[in-house]
Amino acid sequence: MERVLFEMQLAGNIESQKAKIMQQQEFLRQMLSDLRQLERELFFIHREIGTTRDVELVRQAGNLEKEYCEAKRALLLNSEQLAQLIQSFQRIRLEQSMRMAPGSSGERQVVRRNEILFQRATWRLTESDGQLGLAQVQLARLFYERTYNTEDCDEHLLEVASLSVENLLPDPLYQQVLLPDLEGMARDGSARNVFRIYCRQRAPVGGISVKEHLELNVMPIKIQLTHRFFSTIMSFFFPHRKTEQGSNMTSLMRRRLSTQDDFADDVDKMRARAAKNNTFVFVKITEVPITASYKGSKDKNLSDLRDVSLHFPTLEYQNQLWTWLDLVLAIKGDVTRLLLSQVIRGKLKLRGLKRSSSVTASQPGQPEEEKLRLLFGSKVARNRSKKPVN
Length: 390
What we know:
It contains ten helices and eleven strands. The protein is an alpha+beta fold and 390 residues long.
């Protein structure tokens, strides 16, 4: 059904599909007529076998029965395809008529609303064999709402009052990976949800999902992360990300070498490729203060952090054709670049303060000129000593 609907969306003009439906109906009538003819032949040949017991007639009857079964199977298959064509055609026509109906233009009306509420929920992430645990997510007071609107526009809302992530890998450096920053939330003076996602999506275009508005709001949180844990979680959610590019190149070479590709296979490949992509019209991630600890892949890394207060800036993306993995990698790159600059500035500032304080406090009995020479150089100290005394 979805494949037929995707083909009609690719065709563009829905009225041109009428001829295809009528052609399929005529072909089905001819198949039904041939099936009835086979039934009549089988009836007469079986009646003749009952009187003559001819071996040749028995052989002909066996061949006719095989032909009859194949024709009946083909008739059922084509009737299903015709039903899918008609249903897809009626669905698209209904959507178009709802958009063009007087009083519905420019205004979206709620058709149906579904809500899911959990007081507490636990999500345990494991390896594919289910033996080794990767992480455990604790959710409290989870609320999910999906609103179905006219014009084929849906809205999704997810709110979580409390969220914590525990590292289940062997010998973890940090047991708690993510948890609310209670001190930061107290300073913020807000009792809102820790985690909130809002998404408004429109009807797919060419099989590609359209995210009209995607927004993420997070309260002050504490993150304790290692490179090992992050790589493991990325492999869990996106297991084929490393081989995706290679497989795409291989399929492209096969397509170039093949001269008789089946159209149905091409449509299936196009639909599968389109299902992976999303058109992100507007994406916003609001600013949030975080307390971060991070350990890189080596013993000593420039990006290593320990309970550092950072400011997560507001990120916005517009009109991007991405997969969910592309969106995650774009956010990761921007966040790493912005937060790393904050970390470097903080480390340099802290190192400079330590150096100046150690210099001034090393010899408290030194004269003022000697302190100036140690801090700013001998030239500044000589200029200050040459100033006339009033």
